[in-house]
Amino acid sequence: MDATTPKLSKNVMDSFRTMLNGRINVSFDEFVGWALYDSKIGYYKRKQKRVGKGMEDDFYTSTTLGKTWGELIIASSIELLKDGLPSHYCFVEIGAEPDRSVFDGLTHPFSDHKIIRHGDPFDIPEKAVVYSNEWLDARPFKRFKYSRTQGCWLEIFVGLENCNLKEFEKISLDMEDYPFPAEAPDGYCIDWPSGSISSLNDLIQNKPWAGIFMTFDYGLDLKTICKDRPEGTARAYSKHKMDSELLSDPGSKDLTCHICWDSVKKSLECNGFKQVELTSQESFFIKHASNYMQKIFEKSHDQLNPYMLALKEIIHPAHLGHGLQALSGIRV
């Protein structure tokens, strides 16, 4: 894990000290929240374009593939609604990039299309199809490391040392809140997606809306997180390159970790969602948007047709089809 990093610029240093507000250090999720969303230096507050295939972009995802992605979402929504009329439901898009939407350039069949960006309240209409793409893994996360010497999990905090950001380890007093094993190999690291769980609960707990929830993201089951990823799952992205230097250049890189699908499914089920289903992105669209895909195959005799090329990237296991997963549920 990170130890120290190059000295911070003055504006980043001033921002971090303001966030510290007299404290010696902050929990890792608070650090991530600051690095991603601080009004002055936050990665997601920058006006620079982040998503795309260009050299200056940082990463690309399914929404980069334009109308084909939007049409697949519309077709899947209609199929998931079964006998429900799309015109009776508002389509709510969570976490869209500035000035972008899943329905750009498309006509949709819903009663309305509402976009909720970071910082907006979760004001969901009574009947809604709620959709997100890589929203949950853009939320803050905590870090823990197991110490054989101390026989317990240590929580990672971030503070300053000689004008550098540095990780500090503390015995965690509230481990009963986390579903971790009692013991682990020395130094085993868990990046726990606490922000994804709390954000999802804010969206669905004590909220009266009924309809569909579907999200596309990178995640793992609890067993894999706790047993098979000893270095954790957190990573940083910049200019299409991934690294593990999480404390380096805060505000200039995207910070993310895999979400825990077991926790997400449990939140949905505990809040009245039925038919909660987790599949690969490829399997999701084969099941719920096969009619639309068949139309593309029938019309696209040219393998270089842009719709065909986009569809292949979305569903092919070697591209986004297998790595990204889809979770959906229905609440009536």
How would you summarize the topology of this molecule?
Elements: H1 10-20, E1 25-27, H2 28-37, H3 67-81, E2 90-94, E3 112-116, E4 127-133, E5 142-147, E6 152-161, E7 164-171, E8 189-192, H4 194-204, E9 210-217, E10 219-220, H5 222-227, E11 235-238, E12 241-243, E13 254-256, E14 259-260, H6 261-270, E15 274-280, H7 281-288, H8 290-299, H9 306-315, H10 320-323, E16 325-331
Parallel strand pairs: 2-3, 2-4, 4-9, 10-14
Antiparallel strand pairs: 1-6, 5-6, 5-8, 6-7, 9-16, 11-12, 11-13, 15-16
Give me some keywords for this one:
globular; alpha/beta; 332 residues; 10 helices; 16 strands
Structure, explained:
The protein is of the alpha/beta class and about 325 residues long. It contains 10 helices and 16 strands. It has helices spanning about 10-20, 30-35, 65-80, 195-205, 220-225, 260-270, 280-290, 290-300, 305-315, 320-325; strands at about 25, 90-95, 110-115, 125-135, 140-145, 150-160, 165-170, 190, 210-215, 220, 235-240, 240-245, 255, 260, 275-280, 325-330. Strands 3-2-4-9-16-15 form a 6-stranded mixed beta sheet, sandwiched between helices. A hairpin with a 2-residue loop joins β11 (about 235-240) and β12 (about 240-245). α3 (about 65-80) packs across α7 (about 280-290) and α4 runs parallel beside α6 (about 260-270). The longest helix has 15 residues, at about 65-80. The chain is globular, with a radius of gyration of 21 Å. The mean pLDDT is about 90.
